[in-house]
DNA sequence: ACCTGAACACCGTTCAAGT
DNA sequence: ACCTGAACACCGTTCAAGT
């Protein structure tokens, strides 16, 4: 059997979802594909790049149709889509958030948010600050939520998992600030 | 020589600051202390706990006097203190942010923010949502800023590092939303 | 209480060689 | 182009034993 890069990424997501990020090793993935570990380096230059590709694929799979007409409703829609996409896979939020911290992946959601804020009539500087703030909120909240959810299902009752209500409320707080800065 | 837990944490921070998070291994730290790796487990149950202790110590070392009288200026002050504390050590933001995602460390800053928001006259629910949103913004922004700074100093000109202006602007956006929700 | 020595069960990555 | 086989230089953690 001969594989291509997309096969490797797809199988990596299966391993991630079934066994978790700490079990997603290059050796484990190679074994899952029936390959020697060294064979993976023909498809991917290193593990970090593979994780960035996984992050992008997870977000791509969560894509939905845009419905909202108003720019601020569209922001909420984009953020909710991001959250749902990450929650769909075990440790999905951690993978995406980490990749984003190091400037990898998640470039498309950033572009969409930037567009929405620009449509809202915000200045160039505020578009950038707002986009980054929204992404940090979404990634931070979802990573914490998923960690709490997984900790809860593994035993400890720990803390409240946050939930979609808390999530939207946080986004709305930020949107308030953005709305009040629309030039008119 | 006999060590205590605090010696181990202190030396770990030195190793972190000098060689970076990826070089902070239990074996490396043990060698630095002139110990066998197994000796560390007398002071700390595992690496995760050590990292949480490092996160707390980094934040504790950055503590400053509170000056602002108004609740919203106090929020800005707390957030700026957190950012400075994390930026003071190599990979400090990543260590603190990761610990926070898993519900470890950073409990004191959370308490201080909660107090400030309560003083501002916000409802219990909003206090929680606001505190979490502020922390995600601070951790997310600072981690990204530090990663970009370190990438820049290592060669690539990559992206803009954000800076304190962008940071405060993001916090102010959120504060706008919080201010508008003060019950009166 | 704190530490050594040895082991267990792994990692990511490189590189010559094969088809 | 894609893969094997072998190696290099490491990991975190456990556990019996020592003082």
Automatic annotation (TrEMBL), chains A, B:
Coiled-coil annotated spans: none
Q: Which Pfam families match?
A: TetR_C_1, TetR_N
For this protein, the record's SUPFAM superfamilies field holds: Homeodomain-like, Tetracyclin repressor-like, C-terminal domain
Record feature DNA-binding region, as residue ranges: 25-44
Keywords, ordered alphabetically:
DNA-binding, Repressor, Transcription, Transcription regulation
HTH tetR-type domain location is 2-62
The highest taxon in the source lineage is: Bacteria
Q: Which InterPro entries match?
A: Homeodomain-like_sf, HTH-type_TetR-like_transc_reg, HTH_TetR, Repressor_TetR_C, Tet_transcr_reg_TetR, Tet_transcr_reg_TetR-rel_C_sf
Q: What is this protein called?
A: TetR/AcrR family transcriptional regulator C-terminal domain-containing protein
Q: Which organism is it from?
A: Amycolatopsis thermalba
Q: Species lineage, top-down?
A: Bacteria, Bacillati, Actinomycetota, Actinomycetes, Pseudonocardiales
